[in-house]
Design a protein that fits this description.
This protein is mostly helical. The protein has five helices and two strands.
Length: 108
């Protein structure tokens, strides 16, 4: 019997669609990490949100391809955080990370 070594989670999007979130394959994970590197160079909240949206769109291209182009309409911030946490191991609800981001941007 096979052993599953990763976490999956069912999430409901804003339009009621339920998706199963699981870790990304390596190809999509590389694309997310490449986009995520841009977060270190941001100067505004809007730029940070754009990076989050782009990372989420890449993740959604694997998880639910028909929703990859509409992430801004289908996701709220907490759902986006959870998708990136499970799919790409990017933990955005960590208070230490939030404090660091606020320090670099002034406030978020």
């Amino acid at each position: 019997m096979a052993t599953k070594v990763y976490e999956t989670l069912e999430l409901e999007l804003q339009d009621g669609t339920v998706i199963t979130v699981k870790p990304l394959n390596l190809k999509n994970l590389r694309a997310v990490m490449k986009e995520w590197q841009k977060a270190s160079e941001i100067e505004t909240e809007d730029q940070f949100l754009e990076v989050l949206i782009n990372c989420s769109a890449i993740a959604m291209s694997q998880l639910c391809p028909e929703k990859a182009e509409t992430v801004e309409e289908d996701l709220d911030l907490q759902t986006m955080y959870k998708i990136l946490e499970i799919a790409a191991d990017i933990k955005l609800n960590n208070p230490n990370l939030i404090a660091a981001a606020q320090g670099s941007l002034g406030t978020i």
